[in-house]
Amino acid sequence: MKAFEDHFGFTSTPFTREIPTDKQLEFDFLTAQKTALEDVIRRRMSAVLLAPAGTGKSAVLRALEERLPKARYKTSYFKVGNLTSRDLCRDIGHAVGARVVSKFPALVRAVQERFEQDSSADGLRPVLFFDDAHALRPEGLELVKILTNFSFDSRLVVSVILAGHPLLREKLYRPEVEDIRQRLAHCGELRLLSRDESLAYIDHRLSIAGCRTSPFDANALEAMYEMSRGNMRAIDTLAHKALTKATDGGAKTVGQQHVIQGARELCL
Q1: pLDDT of 204
Q2: Range 11-22 average pLDDT
């Protein structure tokens, strides 16, 4: 079976997750969220980023982490699962280099002490990124509040960025976590791409993979937008499948029929 990279003359595989942050296409709404979150961190405060799956949430966090000077910030990234507060605190402890002990209250103190050491002695501002934060249990959100409480809640030491599906908004608006929601200095949202943005995104992904002329005809591009609804991850997987289908059929151009054939093998 011939690889579509050779068939269409790509120098690298397009539409994969392996894209450096400096090659990401900068849409205004993505840039605005990165800037807002960076400002929150600079002020040693916390924020939430709400985004449907596939709209660039993790890419925003990755780009934000790279923008923070390593000499000033100590960042830790967590892909959140349905963990107990003890297990979550243990993961945080391991990530930040705290003394991990068995008793939960002592573990919390050890993590806080590590934050204070990083901030006071080493001059590093701790920043915690929680991806898929909609999976946090209420006790996990409570732990976040506890870990950011210093000197009777009068000092800003740790910045926390909660990023997750819009379901996270529902969790944050529960009465029992109101005090946590009030600590968030920014609530940003990502959205699906428009038709023009989707076409620009496809062109960009083709360009950085070494493609000089788009292999997709106009009907194929329209079909990809309609089927993906402007979701970047869906565009990536659908474009990859369509390129494969066109290559398997020996076609020189990717048409609407190849997009439809590819979509049948995807959960879109």
Answers
A1: 97
A2: 90
